[in-house]
Amino acid sequence: MLFKPVATTCALYCVLLVPIQAEPVAVVNGEIITQQHYNDYLAARAQQNSSNKDAPRERIIQEIIQRILIKQDALKNGIDKGDEFKLKLKALHNSLLMSMGMQKHLEQHPVDEATLKSEYDKQIVNITVPPEYKVRHILVKTEDDAKAIIRELDAGKTFGELAKAKSMDTGSANKDGDLGWVTAKKVVPSFAKALEKLENGTYTGLPIQSQFGWHVIQVDDSRVTLPSFESVKDRIKAALQFQVMQEYVINLRNQATIEISKPTP
What we know:
The chain is α+β, with helices and mostly antiparallel strands. Among the domains are: about 20-75; about 130-225, Chitinase A, domain 3. It has helices at about 5-15, 35-50, 55-75, 85-110, 115-125, 145-155, 160-165, 170-175, 190-195, 230-255; strands at about 25-30, 30-35, 130-140, 180, 200-205, 210, 215-225. The strands form 2 sheets. Strands 3, 4, 5, 6 and 7 form a 5-stranded antiparallel beta sheet that branches. A hairpin with a 2-residue loop joins strand 6 and strand 7 (about 215-225). Helix 5 (about 115-125) crosses helix 10. The protein is elongated.
């Protein structure tokens, strides 16, 4: 009798220590699908395709059930006992070890923001960026038509009014001939050559021919826009992390005893 209260207290204490099991999502041939199992599968599914995260819960559960049924049948057929399975399992095991080992090394040797910015500053001075041109044009059928437009421009008519009245390119004609900002690579070669020769605020003194017809071209402005730090930061980080991993592997090789057998003749 003296021990019953102690036993009861211990039993209650043990019950309090055991976590209350949440209601299973489903049970497949006795195998419980927990909410954590569901959450983990949903997260892995969303990583493959962001649109997957919006799938109905019932569909997700059915997918998990299907996977478990296939797994159970594979176990029933002894696939896990076969040599091929064991070899592939070992390969997956090694691959996971290497992946997690590299991730741990990168976590222990992080590339900080200051290093990224310093690398950006070093690279940006050597980068070559093609200029962009703020361009307008008037497109006509014949060279004579283009020459007539150039004469009107020389006489003082505005580029915009002539583009609206005479350009075959209706898309740009409605915007005073404006094509927006372009680089030489975005236009046909003859058009690109004309752009590169024009100064800001000037138009072509001779018509420019392309497969579309004859152009009169005007450059309103030009600029060279260097990529911002934020736009290239991830690429710089990836490159620096690759260097960190190269140094890591070189260090491992230097510390290792490696013997490479020569192939037998």
